[in-house]
Amino acid sequence: MPTNRRRWVAALLSFLQPGVGHLYLREWSRGLSWFLLWVATALFAAGISTVPPATVAGLTAFIDRFLAALTDLPLARSLALAAVTGFAVVDAYVVAGRTDRRRPGEEPTCPACGKEVDPELDFCHWCTTELEWVER
Questions:
Q1: N or C: which end of the chain has fewer CB within 10 A?
Q2: pLDDT 10s per residue in the chain (136 long)?
Q3: CA nearest 34: which of 46, 48, 17?
Q4: Do 59 and 113 fall into the same domain?
Q5: C-alpha–C-alpha distance, residues 62 and 66, integer Å
Q6: Rounded to an integer, what distance in angstroms lies between the CA atom of residue 96 and that of residue 40?
């Protein structure tokens, strides 16, 4: 998949739910961090500070209360949630656009696993990651 298309898919997924675009890029810890930051911001913005009971009914009631609170957010709190989403979208776009930044004369390495790869292949033969930086 071309890098440009990959950027837009990652950005769109992060717009729909912050962190998902990073998971698409296989940036696991970064994706989890963005998701948790968004959830923490949403809980704070909604004014929810109680832990739901560990039952299905308690969790369902908590989710209903959370979604109802999100629909009636004041402007400042909505902007805080939108800012986290916007930064996650930009970050996913930038992370997807990374290119191989190796020095001339160095052996190329896989951006996912870090092992040396054959420069004539368009994928890493160690972890099968597609290499967009390969000139075709």
A1: C
A2: 455 788 899 999 999 999 999 999 889 999 999 999 999 999 899 888 888 888 999 889 988 988 888 888 899 999 999 999 999 999 999 998 874 344 555 677 888 888 888 877 888 888 888 887 544 4
A3: 17
A4: no
A5: 6
A6: 25
My answer on whether 61 and 118 are in the same domain is: no
- Token readout for 10 is 């990652």
Residue from 92, 67, 122 nearest 6 by CA: 92
Positive/negative CA dihedral, 94, 44, 50, 53: negative
**Checking phi first, is residue 12 left (phi over 0); if not, alpha (psi -120 to 50) or beta?**
alpha
> DSSP code of 109?
B
Structure tokens given for 35: 């998701």
